[in-house]
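User
Here is a favour to ask of a fellow structure person. I am asking you to supply a protein in sequence and C-alpha cell form. Please set it down just below, with no commentary around it:

Assistant
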Amino acid sequence: MSLAARQLQQRPPAPRRALTLERAAQDRAGEGRTLNVLGLLAWDEGHYDEATAQFKAAGLVAHELGDRKLEGASLNNLSLVHDELGDYDTSLEQYGKVLELYRSVDFPRGVGDTLGNIGGVHLLLGHFKERSVTTSRRSRSASA
C-alpha cells in the first residue's frame, strides 16, 4: 500500500461519517461544509487532486444553496491548491472571484483574509509594490 493510500485511511473518520449522515438526512448545508473540511484535510496531506475535487464539490453545493460565504471559502481553498502547485495566475483569478463573493455579503474578515492571500502570491512572484497596496487594503477591510 502506498504512503498516500495509508494517509487517506488514517484520516480522521468523523468527517467521512458526517458526510454520510448529512447526505442521508439531505442536509446540503452540512454536506457542503464537510466537503470543504475534507478538502482541507486532503490539501494538508498534499493530495491536491482529491482536495480540488472536494473544494469544487463544496463550492457547487454552496452555490446551489446561495451560501456565498461557503462558496467563497471553497474557492479560496481551491486557490490554495493552485498556490501550492505554482499556478499563480489561476490562483489570483480565483481570489478575485472570492473577493466579489465576500463583498457581496459584506464579510470584511473574508475580504481581509483574501487580500492577504493575494498579497502572499504577489510576494512569491516578487511584486513587492502590489503586496504593499494589498496589505493596506487588507488593514482597512479588517478594521471595517
Observations:
- The CA atoms of residues 129 and 143 lie 22 Å apart.
- The two ends are 51 Å apart (CA to CA).
- The chain has eight helices and no strands.
- Residues 3-143 form a domain with the Serine Threonine Protein Phosphatase 5, Tetratricopeptide repeat fold (CATH 1.25.40.10).
